[in-house]
Design goal:
The chain is of the alpha+beta class and 593 residues long. The chain has five domains: 1-89, Phosphorylase Kinase, domain 1 (2-Layer Sandwich), CATH 3.30.200.20; 92-277 and 296-313, Transferase(Phosphotransferase) domain 1 (Transferase(Phosphotransferase), domain 1, Orthogonal Bundle), CATH 1.10.510; 388-450, 2-Layer Sandwich (Trypsin Inhibitor V, Chain A), CATH 3.30.10.20; 456-519, Trypsin Inhibitor V, Chain A (2-Layer Sandwich), CATH 3.30.10; 522-591, Trypsin Inhibitor V, Chain A. Helices cover 31% and strands 20% of the residues. A hairpin with a 3-residue loop joins strand 2 and strand 3 (22-29). Helix 4 (107-126) packs antiparallel against helix 7 and helix 7 (188-204) packs antiparallel against helix 9 (238-247). The longest helix is centred in the middle third of the chain and has 27 residues, at 326-352.
C-alpha cells in the first residue's frame, strides 16, 4: 500500500492481518503518541456506497462499547478513497492461532477465556448490539491472559453484504448458528451458539462440523447433532460437555438465556472444579420438585457452595475401546463401578437409618416382627416433597439484612459481584433472582446484587482532538457536551481546553464543556472615537498591524464631522469586535485636521 499516513494523524507501520473485508495494520496515533490497530477496508468495499454507510454507522455504534473484554474503537474515518477504523492495539495472539499451534487448550484455560468473551458479549447485548461473527479469529489473548473480542459492528456490516452461493446471508460457516444459516436474523443467542462452537474447538482442537464447502458445513449446523466433545478429549468432565452441547442446541430457546447466564455457568463450573481438587463431597439425594398450578417447576437447588447449578449432563455416549485394551479397561471399569456402588450403598444405609437397626440388633434389641397379612400388598414409601416457599423481597435492604431475610425463608443467599446503580445507594440490594413473590422449593438459591452507587466515569483527555470526535467520544461515555468556539493558537476545529479537566471522575449525564479553536485569530479592538495615536497603540497591542490611515474631510464625513474632532478615528477596517487572523493589516478612517 503506497499511503503510509492517514489524515496526517495515523501512521501505518506494519501489516499484522488480513481478511475478506479489510487489512489490519499495527500503527501509531501521531497526535496522541500511542500504539493503535488500524483496519483499512479493501477497495471493492470502499466502492459500495450502501456498504460504506452501514460501515461508518455501525463502527460508530461499536465505539460506544466500553468493557474490559471488548477491544475499544477510537475512531472511524476516511482519507480520500481509503476508509479505516482505529482500534485499541492488543499485543498478543488470536485464539484461533493458539489452537492451531497447541491443539486443545487446557480445560481451565479454555473455560476462562470463553467466560471472559461471554461477559463482553453480555455488555454488547445490553446495548442492543449482536456481534454475528463470534469466532476464535475475533478473540484476542495477550501474554498476561487478558481476553478481548474484536470486530463488533464490523462483522454486522460484512454480513449485510456477504452472500453465499444460495443467497443466504451469514459470516464464517464454521461457527454460524442454525438460524443465521437459514437466513433468519441473528439474536444474542446466535452469538451464544457461535461461542459454544468456539469453546468446543478450544476443548477438542477440532470443529464439530466439517465439509467440502461452506454450504455443506452450514447445513450440518442446521440439521446434524454435533459429536460429543468427550469423544475427542476424554478429559472433559461430563458436566462441562453437557453445557457445551446445550449451547449448540438447534433450538435457540434451549441454549442459555443470555451471555451472562452462560458466563455464570462457566464460572460456577470453574469454581466447583477448583473445590473438587480439595474435597469431593458426595452429592445428597434430592427428590424431584413438584410443579404448582400456575407456577413453573423451580430449577434444582445449588450445591453446598451456593453457586448457580450447572445443567444436568446428557446420557453418556458408549464408544469402542482401542484394539488390545478392551479386557483391561473393562476390568478397571467394573472394579471402579463396584467400588462406587459399595460407597453409595453405605451412604444410603447410613442416611436411611439401617445402621441404627443393626446397632440395636447387636445390642440385644430385636426389631419388631413384620407380620404379613393375607391379601395385603406392600405400600411403597413416598419420598416427602420439599416444601414450597415464597421468595422474599430484598431490594433496597443492606446485605446483612438481605441474607437474614433469605435464610429465614429457608432459601440460600448467593452474592453476585457488586455493580453500579444510578438509582440505588451504595451498599443496598438493587437486583435479585428469582424475583420477589416467586414460588420456589426450600433451599433454592436466591442471587442478589449489591449496588456500588452511581458509576463514575473518568473524563478522557480530548485536548488536541477534533471537536466532532471529542464530542462523539464524550457522548458515548454518557456525558452531556457543551461546545464553545473560541480563538486559539491551535488549528481551527480542534479542542484546546475542557471543563472539567481530563482525569476527573464524573457521573454519566453530567455536562462537559469543550472549547474548540476557531484558529489563530484575535479580536479587533473598537477604536472608533479614539485619537489616532491611541488607536494605533491598541491595534498593535492586539497583535494586529496598523497599515494606513485615510484622512477624511467634512465633505466626505457629512454629519459625522460634527461628532468627531480633528485627528479622531471615525471608522476601521476590520470593524471593532471582528475576529481576524493574528497580524492582519488594519486601515483607519480619521477626520482630517
Amino acid at each position: 500500500m503506497q499511503q503510509k499516513i492517514l489524515n496526517n494523524r495515523y501512521e501505518l507501520e506494519q501489516k499484522i492481518g488480513e481478511g475478506g473485508m479489510a487489512r489490519v495494520y499495527r500503527g501509531r496515533d501521531m497526535r496522541l503518541n500511542r500504539r493503535v490497530a488500524i483496519k483499512v477496508l479493501h477497495a471493492q468495499h470502499a466502492a459500495d456506497s450502501g456498504f460504506l454507510q452501514r460501515f461508518h454507522h455501525e463502527a460508530q455504534a461499536a465505539a460506544g462499547l466500553h468493557h474490559p473484554c471488548i477491544v475499544d474503537v477510537y475512531d472511524v474515518g476516511q482519507d480520500g478513497e481509503v476508509h479505516y477504523i482505529v482500534m485499541e492495539f492488543v499485543d498478543g495472539s488470536d485464539l484461533k492461532s493458539l489452537i492451531l499451534r497447541h491443539g486443545a487448550l487446557p480445560i481451565e484455560r479454555a473455560v476462562a477465556i470463553v467466560e471472559d468473551v461471554a461477559r463482553g458479549l453480555e455488555a454488547a447485548h445490553r446495548l442492543g448490539m449482536v456481534h454475528r461473527d463470534v469466532k476464535p479469529q475475533n478473540i484476542l489473548v495477550n501474554p498476561s491472559g487478558e481476553v478481548k473480542i474484536t470486530d463488533f459492528g464490523i462483522a454486522k456490516s460484512a454480513l449485510s453484504t456477504a452472500l453465499t452461493e444460495t443467497g443466504i446471508m451469514f459470516g464464517t460457516a464454521d461457527y454460524i448458528s442454525p438460524e443465521q444459516a437459514r437466513g433468519q436474523p441473528a439474536t444474542p443467542r446466535s452469538d451464544i451458539y457461535s461461542l459454544g462452537v468456539t469453546l468446543y474447538e478450544a476443548l477438542t482442537g477440532r470443529l464439530p462440523f466439517s465439509g467440502d464447502t461452506s454450504i455443506a458445513v452450514a447445513m450440518q449446523h442446521v440439521g446434524v447433532d454435533p459429536p460429543p466433545p468427550r469423544m475427542f478429549n476424554p478429559q472433559i468432565p461430563p458436566l462441562l460437555e453437557a453445557l457445551v452441547l446445550r449451547t449448540l442446541s438447534k433450538n435457540p430457546d434451549e441454549r442459555p438465556a443470555s451471555a451472562r447466564e452462560f458466563a455464570d455457568l462457566l464460572r460456577a463450573y470453574r469454581s466447583a472444579s477448583q473445590e473438587a481438587t480439595i474435597v469431593r463431597p458426595v452429592a445428597p439425594r434430592v427428590a424431584p420438585r413438584p410443579a404448582v398450578a400456575g407456577v413453573a417447576a423451580a430449577s434444582p437447588p445449588a450445591n453446598a457452595s451456593g453457586r448457580a447449578p450447572l445443567p444436568a449432563p446428557r446420557p453418556a455416549v458408549i464408544t469402542r475401546s482401542p484394539p488390545g485394551s478392551g479386557g483391561r479397561d473393562l476390568g478397571v471399569f467394573l472394579l471402579g463401578m463396584l467400588f462406587i456402588g459399595l460407597i453409595l450403598g453405605a451412604v444410603y444405609l447410613f442416611a436411611s437409618g439401617a445402621f441404627d437397626s443393626l446397632i440395636s440388633f447387636s445390642s440385644g434389641s430385636l426389631p419388631p416382627p413384620v407380620v404379613a397379612t393375607p391379601g395385603a400388598t406392600a405400600e411403597p414409601t413416598a419420598t416427602p416433597s420439599p416444601p414450597l416457599v415464597v421468595v422474599p423481597d430484598v431490594i433496597l435492604l443492606d446485605e446483612r439484612a438481605a441474607i437474614a431475610t433469605i435464610e429465614r425463608a429457608g432459601l440460600l443467599p448467593y452474592a453476585e459481584l457488586p455493580r453500579s446503580s444510578d438509582v440505588v445507594s451504595p451498599g443496598l440490594i438493587f437486583d435479585q433472582y428469582p424475583r420477589a413473590s416467586a414460588v420456589v422449593t426450600a433451599s433454592t438459591v436466591v442471587t442478589y446484587v449489591v449496588s456500588t452507587g452511581p458509576e463514575l466515569v473518568t473524563l478522557p483527555d480530548v485536548v488536541t482532538m477534533r471537536g466532532v470526535d471529542a464530542e462523539f467520544q464524550l457522548r458515548n461515555l454518557g456525558f452531556q457536551v457543551q461546545v464553545v468556539s473560541a480563538p486559539d493558537r491551535l488549528s481551527a476545529g480542534f479542542v484546546f481546553r475542557s471543563e472539567p479537566q481530563a482525569g476527573v471522575r464524573l457521573r454519566r449525564g453530567e455536562v462537559v464543556t469543550i472549547f474548540v479553536s476557531l484558529g489563530d485569530k484575535v479580536r479587533m479592538p473598537d477604536v472608533t472615537g479614539l485619537r489616532e495615536d491611541e488607536a494605533i497603540r491598541r491595534i498593535t497591542a492586539a497583535d494586529l498591524n496598523w497599515s494606513y490611515s485615510d484622512y477624511q474631510g467634512c465633505d466626505k464625513l457629512g454629519e459625522l464631522c460634527d461628532r468627531f474632532g480633528p485627528g479622531v478615528v471615525v471608522s476601521s477596517i476590520p470593524r471593532g469586535g471582528d475576529l481576524v487572523d493574528r497580524g492582519a493589516p488594519v486601515t483607519l478612517g480619521v477626520r482630517a485636521p
